[in-house]
Design goal:
By secondary structure, the chain is mainly beta. The chain has a domain of 177 residues. Helices cover 6% and strands 59% of the residues. The radius of gyration is 27 Å and the shape is globular.
Length: 665
């Protein structure tokens, strides 16, 4: 593909930033597995510094084969994305966005201003973001108020405000690079709920400061990377249990990788890493203060050994590097082994990873991985202060009613370490033909013991096993559910993911339309959970524990001609059952219907020529989310209407229209 074709392909994505382009490429080429990101072929101390650049700063995006991430300490089956940026780039741009549902009730306004300057690998990026969202009240949804007559003046979605400022820098220091990323933000939310005593106002104000710095380069034949992070948070909550939490955190990480002489098929990649952090928390609630300090440290090592290289073109065979069986080339083959350990105040942990990547021929790769991990719970899961969370509408199988309940959220200091084991097999084909047809399929298996969970379905059996997590009033009405985390006994999941992409050839000189198609499908094969306390094993695909859909299908269709680009995104989720009694189908079960929605986005861009590269001058974007205004629906297994599945009960927002005006200055 020529440079002009690379640029035309990036323009066709119509992403507002390099990060948007990266996200779309990750969904296409690396679904479900974040790639390792490098810049201009070099690993940077903090690649995220470059992601806020406008998309026209990107010259091309190179996707390396599955398994390439292992050379950088990533997953044995992961990919590497190389972002090749323009050598020199500068821009100042801003955007204004207004959004509201077609049914009315609330509005959302936001503004973003950005200034970027890039010279080789030296970058300065300044960003300011503002967002203001009004509350959606039950009074604005008559159907909801009819189903829930006690919800007058109650917030269905909270009022919120967000302000952030970010400054990011990267500088070359000879063969080394240094980065600094500093940000400050304030988030506030306010909602109104109703309890036995009447209306209650809940508000949360969070102020956060964060500084990240990094250094990377070569020392004694090792590629070294050092990262430091410091954060400070102040969280003030007002309501029935007002509190203030001050959290300070410091962490540092070191990563080393190098190549060693191999077995003839190429050098051996060695990756070593270690990190440590310290957190200090002070929580003041109901006149009492609680202070905690926690520390954690971890290490990880991984070695990747190439056993055979892909077969070269005819006439260029290298017998020392390409293994053959019966005269047939084995292709590219590598194996990896990794191990790690972690020590925290909540206990220790360890991990073991095995992986293999095989490329039997060009554009065909197969990778496999296996891991076993012992993971201690996070400080947030253990020590977050208990507080009232947002109200939720749940179906109470005991009474056969849908009720709006209070939720209790926070930490659980009694959590123990979780043990998990996982395996994955991934096949990647393409891109083939001039249409760049690509196919990816992955099979994954995960088993966990003492995993952390927080969701309990209000069925009679679950409530009998966990009576302390469900609160009812004198009339037997469910009024509160405790959603703080706990250790489930065991769980097992298996799933098959498939993606298909079509990218017809791009002719930057022609006026013909450019279009792309991407399909994504997930098929859940197994989803079982054992909660303990004498409860039977929950088969969630059969409907236990609230049930879960067995299949998801998503697709995107994009068409661009001249300055106009149309994106259509669809999602379909298969219907499923939610059982009232574990292990048994019954007439009181919920039958959740299939759900499908379409999103439409039209982008009109005016371009200008900057140093021979087409750059965006202005942008007008119209987005319609949930184009057909679909809502989740359900009925009881006996065909009767299901409470809590009125038109606005599960999705009070519905169809939403968003207009964005962007300008390059």
């Amino acid at each position: 593909m020529t440079c002009a074709q690379h640029i035309a392909r990036i323009d066709a994505l119509a992403g507002g930033s390099v990060g948007d382009v990266l996200g779309q490429a990750a969904r296409q080429f690396s679904p479900g597995q974040p790639p390792v990101v490098i810049i201009n072929g070099v690993r940077m101390p903090d690649p995220s510094v470059f992601l806020d650049l406008p998309s026209d700063a990107l010259e091309r995006l190179e996707v390396l084969p599955a398994g390439s991430a292992a050379e950088y300490g990533g997953s044995p089956s992961g990919r590497v994305f190389n972002l090749v940026l323009q050598r020199s780039f500068a821009s100042r741009d801003g955007a204004l966005t207004a959004a509201a549902p077609t049914a009315g009730g609330f509005r959302e306004l936001s503004a973003t201003a950005r200034q970027s300057r890039l010279q080789d690998r030296n970058i300065t990026n300044l960003t300011l973001t503002l967002r203001d969202v009004s509350a959606l009240l039950a009074d604005d949804r008559p159907a909801y108020l009819r189903d829930h007559p006690d919800s007058a003046d109650v917030s269905l979605t909270p009022e919120s405000r967000f302000l952030s400022a970010n400054a990011a820098f990267n500088r070359s220091l000879g063969d080394w690079a240094a980065s600094l990323n500093a940000s400050a933000s304030q988030t506030s939310s306010r909602s109104t709920t109703r309890d036995a005593d009447g209306l209650t106002v809940l508000s949360t104000d969070t102020r956060r400061w964060e500084v990240r710095s990094g250094l990377s380069g070569s020392v004694l034949d090792w590629i070294a990377q050092v990262n430091l992070l410091a954060t400070a948070d102040v969280v003030e909550a007002e309501g029935p249990t007002p509190s203030q939490t001050d959290l300070m955190s410091w962490s540092g990480a070191v990563a080393l990788n190098r190549s060693l002489p191999g077995l003839g098929a190429g050098p051996i990649a060695v990756n070593l890493s270690a990190d440590a952090n310290r957190n200090r928390t002070r929580t003041e609630a109901v006149g009492e203060a609680d202070r905690r300090a926690t520390t954690a440290s971890a290490w990880q090592g991984q070695i990747t050994v190439p056993l055979s290289q892909p077969a070269p073109p005819p006439g260029l065979e290298d017998e020392a590097k390409t293994l053959k069986i019966g005269g047939v080339s084995l292709g590219g083959l590598s194996v990896s082994l990794g191990a790690g350990g972690r020590d925290t105040d909540a206990g220790g942990g360890n991990s073991l990873d095995l992986g293999a990547a095989w490329q039997p021929r060009d554009k065909v790769s197969l990778s496999a991985s296996w891991n076993r991990t012992l993971t201690a719970p996070s400080d947030l899961d253990r020590f977050a202060p208990p507080r009232q969370g947002p109200n939720a509408v749940v179906y109470d199988f005991r009474t056969g009613e849908a009720v709006e309940v209070q939720t209790l959220v926070g930490g659980n200091p009694d959590l123990t370490a979780a043990r998990s084991e996982g395996a994955a097999l991934n096949l990647s084909l393409g891109p083939f033909t001039r249409w760049s047809v690509g196919f990816n399929q992955g099979l994954s298996l995960a088993r966990t013991r003492d995993g952390i969970s927080s969701s309990l379905q209000p069925t009679p059996q679950t409530e009998a096993a966990y009576p302390d997590r469900f609160l009812r009033d004198a009339s037997g009405r469910l009024v509160r559910i405790d959603l703080r985390p706990f250790n489930a006994t065991a769980s097992e999941t298996r799933s098959l993911t498939t993606s298909l992409s079509l990218n017809p050839p791009v002719d930057p000189e022609a006026s013909a339309a450019t279009w792309t198609v991407n399909l994504f499908h997930t098929w859940r094969l197994t989803d079982r959970t054992e909660l303990g306390r004498g409860l039977p094993v929950l088969d969630r695909l059969a409907g236990d524990g609230g049930g879960v859909s067995g299949q998801d299908l998503g697709w995107t269709l994009s068409r661009m001609k001249g300055p106009l680009k149309i994106d259509v995104t669809g999602r379909w989720t298969a219907g499923y059952r939610s059982r009232a009694t574990i292990g048994e189908d019954g007439p009181a079960d919920l039958r959740i219907s299939d759900f499908a929605r379409l999103d439409l986005k039209a982008t009109y861009r005016l371009f200008r020529d900057v140093s021979g590269r087409r750059a965006e001058g202005a942008r007008l974007e119209l987005s319609i989310q949930n184009l057909t205004d679909e809502r989740p629906s359900a009925r009881l297994a006996d065909g009767a209407p299901a409470a809590g599945y009125g038109r606005d009960s599960r999705d009070p927002v519905g169809r939403r229209i968003e207009i964005t005006l962007g300008k390059r200055f």
